[in-house]
Amino acid sequence: MEIASTAIVSPRARIADNVAIGPFCIIEDEAEIGAGTRLDSHVVIKRYTTLGEENHLYPGVVLGNDPEDRHFTGARAFLKVGNRNVFREFSSASRGTPPESATVIGDNNYIMIGVHIAHNCRLGNNIVICNNCSLGGYVEIEGGAFLSANVLVHQFSKIGQLAMVSGNTRVNLDVPPYLVASDFHIAAHGLNLVGLKRAGFSNETIRQLKKAYQILYRSRLPLQEALERIEREIPTPEARHLVDFIRSSKRGICRDFRGIAPWALAGTERAEKTEGTESADQE
Predict the structure, then answer these.
(1) Could you count the other beta carbons within 10 Å of the beta carbon of residue 3?
(2) Stronger pLDDT, 247 or 272, i.e. the higher one
């Protein structure tokens, strides 16, 4: 264990072997840091924060701070971070708001400069979040997703597996798995072909997902009929995950940028109304 002389480490923190804690870091009571984790200078790990193994926190990172939520009462809540994550300079993640709840971040994620992950978010594995993105409370992001710079994700929104969100996009509708989404009024722009190929998806799997996209967004079918057709005609695990994600959506999913699907405008209007009613809880 290597701890700089200017670091302040609570005797009630649990620090594993082979942890490096740099100058002017602060580690509070009840924090836990796993083996092989490295903290550069001026990192703050607040109480009730758990870090797994081999994470790297760059200067100015703050993890486990109180949520920016007026409903927070000060009760115990948690931030749970997995293994081999990178948090670049001045990124931050809050603990949960309700008592005993948690913000959860998985493994092998790359969190870039100035990113904020709000209370009760749940992030999977192998996610990249680029500079200055902001995630509102209760956001969920599935594995392999990619958020470009300056993306703003409204609370309770969901971003699916291997989806890519372009820079400066406002995510106020759910983004289904495997898609590229962009624009201020977020819209789908086809499949994330580069991401799918890098993830090892076969040409046949990608072909089937293209067919599912055409049915979902270009067939002019009502949403439920489109989902039923995908189930009948494309019995693959990826298509099943796409359908299940959409059926579980509470905010509605983003429309195609051409606005062909008959359900697209209604879904957008619903999200705008929901956004207005939730603003008091926005982080």
Answers:
(1) 17
(2) 247
**254: DSSP letter:** P
Judged against a pLDDT cut of 90, whether residue 100 lies above it is answered with: yes
- State the chain's mean pLDDT as an integer: 93
Q: Are residues 223 and 178 in the same domain?
A: no
User: Average pLDDT for residues 20-26, to the nearest whole number?
Assistant: 98
Give yes or no for residue 102 having a pLDDT over 90: yes
pLDDT value of position 262 = 74
Residue 195 has a CB neighbour count (10 Å cut-off) of: 20
Report which of 42, 44, 68, 59 is spatially closest to residue 135, judged by C-alpha positions.
68
Strand ranges in 166-263 using DSSP code E only, listed in sequence order: 170-171, 179-182, 187-191, 255-256
Residues 58 and 40: beta-carbon distance below 8 Å: yes
Q: What is the dihedral of CA 179, 93, 67, 43, to 10 degrees?
A: -160
Contact 39, 16 (CB under 8 A): no
> Which CATH number characterizes residue 208's domain?
1.20.1180.10
Q: Look at residue 164 and tell me whether its pLDDT is greater than 80.
A: yes
Which of 177, 195, 213 delimits the end of a domain?
195
Residues 82 and 163 in one domain: yes
Please report the pLDDT score of residue 282 as a whole number. Answer: 42
Position 92 scores a pLDDT of 98
> Do 79 and 113 belong together in one domain?
yes
Place of tokens 């993890």: 63
Range of the domain at 69: 2-195
Counting Cβ atoms within 10 Å, is residue 236 exposed (0-12), middle (13-18) or buried (19+)?
A: middle
Contact yes or no for 37/61 (Cβ under 8 A): no
Distances (CA, A) of 9 to 24, 84, 180: 10, 22, 43
Please give the tally of structural domains in the chain: 2
Whole-number percent of the chain with pLDDT over 90? 90
